[in-house]
Amino acid sequence: MLTLALPKGRLAEESARILKDKGWLDSLPPSDSKELTFVSKDKRLRLLFVRSQDVCTYVEECSADAGIVGWDIIKEGKYDLISPVDLKIGECRLSLASFPDFDLYAKRSKVRVATKYPELTKEYFFSKGISCEVIKLYGSIELAPIVGLSDCIVDLVSTGGTLKANGLKEIESILFSTARLVCNRSSFYAKQDELRSLIESLEN
């Protein structure tokens, strides 16, 4: 049996539909279930439903053989995983945003940035040669510049509707993200037949 970690919510639902279409699931997990695991009737696949930020940890620590997670999370955590398939779902972008009159290159000692992605944010500002102070938040990132906590934010953007509703503007895209299949390196060899079969079916 393969164990696959999925991020709770819409991405898990989309992933489960793909797995069903590819013959890995005979039925979809109940949408109203509170259970954190789901096993296919043929015992071929077990799903774990975890927070998106935890998917890579479950896979890296061998509690799951593989997982489906956004490229943004993979890059932020610098996990030691194999990422063989881009599922081309969950499209979004990690972007710098602020008020329309924000000048990234204005003379200041450092830029204060609120984000859930401190490592990618530091890399971005370092590449620009700009000093930054990163303020890590876990939600409502758009609020930070409104109340003066930060000069700008780095956050995931899909349609841009939330930014616009709060008077903010997308300034520059830092990273484009889609959901990827990631595999534990040990499992990739110990269960290579099963994982190769999964990879091939998701690629086609």
UniProtKB/TrEMBL annotation:
Its localization reads: Cytoplasm
Where in this chain does the record put each ATP phosphoribosyltransferase catalytic domain?
51-203
**Single GO MF annotation:** ATP phosphoribosyltransferase activity
* Stretches that traverse the bilayer: none
Record-level GO BP terms: L-histidine biosynthetic process
Record EC number? 2.4.2.17
Subunit structure, briefly? Heteromultimer composed of HisG and HisZ subunits.
Record protein name field? ATP phosphoribosyltransferase
Q: Which species expresses this protein natively?
A: Leptospira ilyithenensis
